[in-house]
Amino acid sequence: MSGWRDRAACQTGALLQVSTTSATGAAEVFFPFPSERELTLRAKRVCQGCPVRTDCLPEALDNGYDHGVWGGLDERERRELRRADRGAA
């Protein structure tokens, strides 16, 4: 059974297009230290054209993923989105 993660851009060659060195892998790009803004921006570029971005973001929000880039949003952006959702409820 194939899930949405199998079709994610971060699991395909799209990651190679934003990596500047062969040593930079998915973990480093999608789960950078907060001070590594350039890696966060690289991950977001991969997410921009991802066919499953709309599956990925709810996965992170519903499960409280606090680290990394999911669905094109970093930790801070997801926190703000959750706050806004709570405020609207």
From TrEMBL:
Please name the InterPro entries in this protein's record: 4FE4S_WBL, Whib
Major location (coarse): cytoplasm
Matching HAMAP family = WhiB
Molecular function GO terms recorded: 4 iron, 4 sulfur cluster binding; dinitrosyl-iron complex binding; DNA binding; metal ion binding; protein-disulfide reductase [NAD(P)H] activity
Please indicate if the UniProt record lists 4Fe-4S as a keyword.
Answer: yes
- The superkingdom listed in its UniProt entry is Bacteria
Function of the molecule? Acts as a transcriptional regulator. Probably redox-responsive. The apo- but not holo-form probably binds DNA.
PANTHER family linked: TRANSCRIPTIONAL REGULATOR WHID-RELATED
Q: What cofactor does this one take?
A: [4Fe-4S] cluster
Keywords attached to this entry = 4Fe-4S, Cytoplasm, Disulfide bond, DNA-binding, Iron, Iron-sulfur, Metal-binding, Transcription, Transcription regulation
Instruction: State one Pfam family annotation.
Output: Whib
**Free-text comment on the cofactor:** Binds 1 [4Fe-4S] cluster per subunit. Following nitrosylation of the [4Fe-4S] cluster binds 1 [4Fe-8(NO)] cluster per subunit.
Gene Ontology CC annotation, any one: cytoplasm
Cell location:
Cytoplasm
Post-translationally, this protein is described as follows, namely:
Upon Fe-S cluster removal intramolecular disulfide bonds are formed. The Fe-S cluster can be nitrosylated by nitric oxide (NO).
State what protein this is by name: Transcriptional regulator WhiB
Q: Which GO terms describe its biological process?
A: cell redox homeostasis; negative regulation of DNA-templated transcription
Q: Name the protein family.
A: Belongs to the WhiB family.
Q: Does the keyword DNA-binding apply?
A: yes
Which residues are in the 4Fe-4S Wbl-type domain? Answer: 21-80
